[in-house]
Amino acid sequence: MDLELLEQTLARHGQPRFRARQVWGWAARGAASYEQMTDLPAWLREALASELPFSSLQLQRESRACDGTIKARFATRDGHPLETVLMRYRDRRRSICVSSQSGCPLDCTFCATGRMRFARNLSASEIVDQALHFTRVEEHPRYRSAARGDHGAHGGHPATPRASGQGERAARPLTHCVFMGMGEPMLNLDAVLAACERLPDLGVTQRRTTISTVGWIPGIERLAEHDRPLRLAISVHAAEEALRSQLMPVNDRFPLRDVIDAARAFHARRRRRIFVEYVLLAGVNDRYEQALALARLLTGPAAGAYPAARARPAGGPGERSAAGPRPGARGSSIFKVNLIPYNATIAAGADPYRGSTRESIAAFQAALQSRGIPATVRLTRGRAINAACGQLAAEVA
Ligand code: SAH
Question: 98, 74 in Cβ contact below 8 A?
Fold first, then answer.
């Protein structure tokens, strides 16, 4: 929903200012049309329906994986493709992975998005509309019944925006947001930050919102100065400059050492632990010495000292992820590494990369943990529908 256009449209109809908040309140709670906004005059609902598209995005396709992951492919009004993923977890977390751009101007060699054409930055409304779509998918049953015209089944009209208690909580099902869909959020930071101001109305607080970057230093610096508790994630993928430049050409412009310095400065300012993302590629960046090099890079003055004598190797190779720091880690590292199993992005014959084995992933994780760096292995979700990390590359159908 384009909120600027909404305000203009309401003003044209001589409506008081509170109307925009009222409409937004309904949308944020998962209403699927103006028609459902029952405390608006009927004529106004009709006027809005004919003058203002309910969403700035058109849903083109939705794929569902059996792990509960849903991928939505949208087109902007001017025809540019983008994708968004909803991940559902058993503990009721609902995390959306949103796109900040249609395509991506950077060319990380292992990422599908980098291979499609870069179109443009998305607007704040286009970012928020991705989240609104999934709020509607997951919405409260009362909205669903209203949308189907099935008013009897769940006790009548949809909850009003003023509703409180259980109903309201259920109507805000999203809990987390990561800017890990298409694009580089730091290249579109104004719109990203504007969208982050809206997401709390959908239940996604800024503390539970993570901005992931290739290491675009001006963006990291700006985020450090930004007065909101947003989380920062950095895609590192290699601890050696030369290898990183090979995998991610942007490293020539912003070398890893400087990126890590910027991340430390971010931590000094904001006091929030930083996620380091590391895609494990067999024979490329998954060797034991490379894990130690990564640990050295991330251990430093600000992270505290980790005497080897205190550290103990982490659990055996079967271990998938560790909840929190290992014994000896003391929980004081400013970085936490997310090890990401590689997701194939092109046909096996043409793909220069292979994912690391479970055993090497576990060994890499254990090596980091033994040096006091907390490390988890990201569960791979949505692979069957090409919705996993790095697999987003939509073409408009
Ligand atoms: N441009 C930002 C946001 C995109 S995030 C960034 O790079 O951080 C997408 C995440 O998925 C990044 O950590 C990226 O490195 C990772 N990724 C990309 N391609 C992947 C692949 N084929 N398999 C697994 N992860 C991948």
Answer: no
